[in-house]
Prior knowledge:
By secondary structure, this protein is mainly α.
Amino acid sequence: xxxxxxxxxxxxAHYKYFITIxxxxxxxxxxDENSIRAIIKNKVRISELQDMIDRYNQEYEHDSKKLNDMKxxxxxxxRVAREDYFMKADDEDIFVLSDDQPKEKSLEEQEQExxxxxx
Length: 119
């Protein structure tokens, strides 16, 4: 038993700097709040946020151009009113066509309607 303990202590004493460096790298690399995993996670988050910023900047430029057009061109105001708000002139009718399919009712909804009709 003592011989085995002496062998372990001799190994640790011989490789003490190597063991210290390995333990330090493991702590800093994986367990610390500034670990490699945290750095990679933060870089991914930064990339996602940068994509969002780019998308919002494009949206802002598009909306700014649309607003500028509306300030300078009366036809642009009419176009926005017709396309986005379905406004119309007094002498015309608007028909809004939809490609949406009607939702099929589930068996429970059909049974509930039958029960309501029976009452």
